[in-house]
From TrEMBL:
Keyword ATP-binding: yes
The keyword Nucleotide-binding belongs to this UniProt entry's keyword annotation: yes
InterPro entries in the record: AAA+_ATPase, ABC_transporter-like_ATP-bd, ABC_transporter-like_CS, ABC_transporter_ATP-bind, P-loop_NTPase
Family from the record: Belongs to the ABC transporter superfamily.
Residue ranges of the region described as Disordered: 1-24
Domain of life: Bacteria
Pfam family, one: ABC_tran
Free-text function comment from the UniProt entry: Involved in beta-(1-->2)glucan export. Transmembrane domains (TMD) form a pore in the inner membrane and the ATP-binding domain (NBD) is responsible for energy generation.
Molecular function as annotated in GO: ATP binding; ATP hydrolysis activity
Identification of the protein by name: ABC transporter ATP-binding protein
SUPFAM superfamilies for the chain: P-loop containing nucleoside triphosphate hydrolases
Organism (species): Bradyrhizobium cytisi
Length: 288
């Protein structure tokens, strides 16, 4: 039912696929007609506008679009950190009313506990869920080996590089064996060389974990390299403009950056994002 308090919006036609029906089989993440509205001094701002999408188990889906288009807000709704103004978000058939242990989250900054070692940072989640200390540390040790930081198991966060800290943050998010891993620009604060290494690490890690991943990024190369699908969002209020299937074979490496199929897909993405970026800039000028 339409909410009578919903701010009126101008009609804008977008090139988007039909919204998935409620009978779409096997989707682990389902977003149905989602709108998120924030209160501001002048009234209300629509951050996400009537978004519908479905993500299947094991998929890697990236969200890209101009700054302020609602990518992170949409991801936060999937994590249960933002509640809908209208619509519904479900993971594994259950409404996301708040954070859950089967939905892991990685942010742009690692947010590690500075007083805990790498090993105990990763063991924190399993301990919070009631696992014994021995079992939690066993899980941590397995993940530390997986991310290649065995020599740093007892190190503290301030002694690690930015890339190493982010690897620990990813391992900590995986410690509760989540069905879904949500990643909000996790490599955005890293230098280009470290970012490339982290992308390779994530590609390798993805082949060893059983999790569905939704990934927010501004980097088109990163989105195509990592993803099965790339969802391009409009300038605010955020809507899904295009759902692009990557279709490049796995396993992947940076060698695909010169593949003709990759270059064609990148060109399509950039054309859309540049158009939306201009709209976002025009909107900011209008507000100013």
């Amino acid at each position: 039912m339409h909410n009578p308090l919903r701010p009126a919006l101008p009609l804008r036609l977008v090139d988007a696929p039909p919204a998935p029906s409620s009978t779409t089989p096997q989707a682990i993440i389902r977003v149905e007609d989602l709108s998120i509205v924030f209160d501001v001094p002048r009234g209300q701002v629509i951050a996400v506008d009537r978004v519908s999408l479905a993500v299947m188990p094991g998929e890697f889906v990236s969200l890209v679009g101009p700054s302020g288009c609602g990518k992170s807000t949409l991801l936060n709704a999937m994590a249960g950190l933002e509640q809908p103004f209208e619509g519904l978000v479900t993971v594994a058939g259950e409404s996301m009313l708040g954070p859950r242990p089967d939905v892991g989250m990685v942010f742009q900054q690692p947010h590690l506990f500075p007083w805990k070692s790498v090993r105990r940072n990763i063991a924190h989640g399993p301990r919070a869920l009631g696992k014994s200390k021995a079992e939690a540390l066993r899980i941590a040790d397995d993940l530390i080996e997986m991310i290649g930081l065995t020599k740093f198991a007892n190190a503290y966060p301030h002694t690690l590089s930015g890339g190493m800290q982010q690897r620990v943050a990813i391992a900590r998010a995986l410690a509760n064996q989540p069905r879904v891993l949500l990643m909000d620009e996790p490599f955005g604060a890293l230098d280009a060389q470290t970012r490339a290494v982290m992308q390779d690490n994530l590609l390798e890690l993805r082949g060893r974990i059983n999790a569905t991943i939704v990934f927010v990024t501004h980097d088109i190369d990163e989105a195509i390299l990592l993803s099965d699908r790339v969802l391009i969002m409009s300038a605010g209020p955020g809507r899904i403009l295009r759902d692009l299937s990557v279709g490049l074979p796995r396993p992947r490496s940076s060698a695909i950056l010169t593949d003709p199929a990759y270059l064609a897909l990148k060109r399509d993405c950039l054309d859309l994002i540049r158009s939306e970026g201009r709209k976002a800039f025009e909107q900011m000028e209008t507000v100013a």
